[in-house]
Every structure is written in structure tokens, then in C-alpha cells.
Amino acid sequence: MGRLLAAVRNDSVEMNVAMNHANGAFTLHAGMPVRQLSAVDFRTALGHCDVVLSSPGMTTLVEASQAGRPYVPLPPQNWSQVLICRHLAGRSEQSLWPFLTGPYDHIAEAAPEAEKAVAVQEINRRLGRDDGYLTRYAQLARHAVGNPRTPDVGAPFGGAHEVAAVVAADLAARRSADELTTEATAS
What we know:
Strand order of the largest sheet: 1-2
Helix content: 40-55%
Radius of gyration: 17 Å
Structural class: mainly alpha
């Protein structure tokens, strides 16, 4: 994550790095100072930023959307974030969203959750060492920062559980369409 943030960083803009105050359970090394914020402090900081760069967690997306703040996604960190990226790739005009979903396309949705979690981690390790991926991500992210958009999560949501329901419905519709295509091909 730190290499991505450093690649996107542009000296003409100030970048502040913050993360949830996780009682010391998680750390982020970004090559610059990182503040740990409580939920209240995060919402306050969100109100003062021009653009949010974050992995696509539902809560952050909802908060950025509710605050009317433009959002630029970092790569997904887990399977649920891959699903969120897929959902938003279909709702956004930013080419960064589909770019982020591509590396995870070969993960079978029907696989057990533990296998999907391991697959996402392995892909992220590989991408973290891929200078070509890093360069392309930085280009797309800088373009997104220069053309910021508030995330379109589908409606004005009051919480992450509502976003999850929309993503689940979207996936169910895609699965049904895939099954119909498979049945038609088999006939």
C-alpha cells in the first residue's frame, strides 16, 4: 500500500495519511507520517479533505458518499472489497475501477471464503512487486484525483449493510445471467 501511495503522491498537493484507530492492531507504512483516527476524528478529517484515497471498504465508501467527497480507490484488500470494486466498476466512469478488478477475475466466486481470502492476499503480494502495475495504477489514480467523483454506491445509504444488500443483489443478477448463458450454450 505504501508504494502505491508514494507513486500517486504529487508534490504539488498535500497528502495526509490516516487509518482507523485499531487499538494498535494494524499498522500502515506509507513513507510518510500516518495518523490513527477514531471514527469521529475520521469523519471530521473527511470533511476537510479534497479527495479520499482508500481501499474500497463499504463503510469508507458510504462515509465519503454521504460527505460528498470525491473518492479514488486503492486496490481491494479482501474478497468483499473485490466484490465492491466489481459493483462500482459498473456504476463509475472512472477507468480505475475496472483496472482494479482485473487481477482478481480468475478467483472462483463459488470457492470457499478461506480460499478466496488467500487468493486475494497472494494476488496483492504479486501486484505489490509488479512495477508495471504500480505505474499504471499511479497513472489512473492521478487521473482520478484530477477528475474527482463522489462514489455512486447506488442510492443514499445509511449504513454498510445497505450497500452489502445492493452488492449482493447485483451479484445474484450477474450469476443468474451467467447461468442462463451457460444453459443456452449447453442446449
